[in-house]
Specification:
The complex is a heterodimer of chains A (185) and B (132). Chain A is α+β, with helices and mostly antiparallel strands and 185 residues long. Chain A has helices spanning 11-32, 74-85, 101-111, 174-182, and strands spanning 5-6, 46-54, 57-65, 123-126, 132-138, 141-147, 154-159, 165-169. Helix content of chain A is 29%, strand content 26%. In chain A, the strands form 2 sheets. Chain A has a 5-stranded antiparallel beta sheet with strand order 4-5-6-7-8. In chain A, helix 1 (11-32) packs parallel to helix 3. The radius of gyration of chain A is 17 Å and the shape is globular. Chain B has helices spanning 52-57, 79-84, 112-118; strands at 17-22, 27-29, 35-37, 46-51, 73-78, 88-91, 100-104, 121-124. Chain B has 3 helices and 8 strands, in the order E-E-E-E-H-E-H-E-E-H-E. By secondary structure, chain B is an alpha+beta fold. Classes of the chains: A alpha+beta (185), B alpha+beta (132).
């Protein structure tokens, strides 16, 4: 493996990655898994970290949890987010700038609680405008959650078999989004 | 240069191919190894393209649009397809790219970006990396 340099992240960047991962993971596991712990075995938070590599740079994600196995979507999703931070200037060849870290942060927080332990990971796709979208194309369904720099996040749903399509604003229609993602697996 | 407004140019025929460079972040690979374009590639309100007929008149093959962009794919939609989705198609020549044009209109809502993508065909397929 070639030598990989450590990314010179700003404190803000590190905070976003670490805090977001922590928030998502804590919230998710604090609901279901704590039920399995007896009253004599209080769950103990531990600090965890994981390294991701993107375009020759190393990123470290830190979070706290109860030591449970990571869900299947965790690594692909984190890798997708990290890959956004290493896009070069003009990455689309049409003058696109960097992806806004605030948008990434928002997307991380929103996906908190959305996915189950065996959910499939969405694909993380950059937008030329500096935003991002999360995409699933499974079971004949196209689902895209769009986080742009301007405007409210929304999701677009299309059933390729029936032709039905609809668009919904977030976080107002979060329950509907969760219902749809539950049907993708 | 966002903020400009373009009117549809009726001199551009419906079968004119509009060429769009596709960088790797907009390409996914299915289980058969097919390169799938994300709708994100077609969501700019002022979507830059190359007008193929202008390139041909200059003696340039379509592949010339990605000559300076190794690893990129090149996709084409037709002007007629763009217009069917309420988009205007207009020339917008640039000093560095005389064949430059614009597909102008709202694309982020209503699944327009995805529908534009659905009409896209590869002119040059990107090559899948071992670990991308």
């Amino acid at each position: 493996m070639p030598a990989l340099g450590t990314a010179e992240l700003t404190v803000q960047d590190r905070g976003i990655l670490a805090t977001s991962a922590s928030a998502a993971y804590l919230d998710y596991f604090s609901s279901g898994d704590r039920l399995l712990v007896s009253v004599f075995q209080q769950p103990v938070l531990i600090r965890r970290q994981r390294k991701y590599y993107s375009r020759g740079q190393e990123y470290q994600v830190e979070w706290q949890d109860y030591g449970q196995p990571l869900p299947a979507w965790f690594d692909p999703l984190m890798q997708g987010f990290v890959d956004l931070f290493t896009l070069p200037h003009n990455w689309d060849s049409y003058g696109a700038g960097p992806i806004d870290p605030k948008v990434v942060h928002y997307a991380m927080n929103l996906i908190n609680g959305l996915l189950g332990p065996i959910s499939s990971a969405p694909r993380v796709v950059p937008l030329s405008s500096g935003g991002l979208q999360l995409e699933w194309h499974r079971q004949g369904i196209d689902l895209e959650i769009v986080f742009d720099r301007d405007g409210q996040p929304f999701f677009y749903y299309r059933n390729r078999v029936s032709g039905d399509e609809s668009e919904h604003t977030l976080p107002q229609d979060y329950a509907l989004l969760r219902s749809i993602t539950g049907k993708l697996d | 240069m966002p903020g400009r407004v373009f009117e549809d140019d009726p001199n551009i025929p419906a079968d004119e191919r509009l060429l769009r460079r596709i960088p790797r972040p907009w390409v996914d690979w299915d289980e058969h190894g097919n390169a799938i374009i994300s709708s994100a590639a077609f969501k700019d309100e002022e979507l830059s393209i190359n007008l193929e007929s202008v390139m041909v008149r200059a003696g340039r093959p379509p592949e010339d649009a990605i000559r300076n962009y190794p690893g990129y794919g090149l996709a084409a939609i037709t002007a007629g397809h763009a217009r069917s989705l309420n988009q205007a198609v207009a020339p917008d020549p640039l000093p560095e790219e005389p064949a430059h044009g614009v597909v102008y209109g709202q694309k982020k809502r209503g699944g327009i970006g995805g529908k534009l993508r659905d009409g896209a065909l590869w002119v040059v397929r990107p090559v899948q990396l071992e670990a991308s």
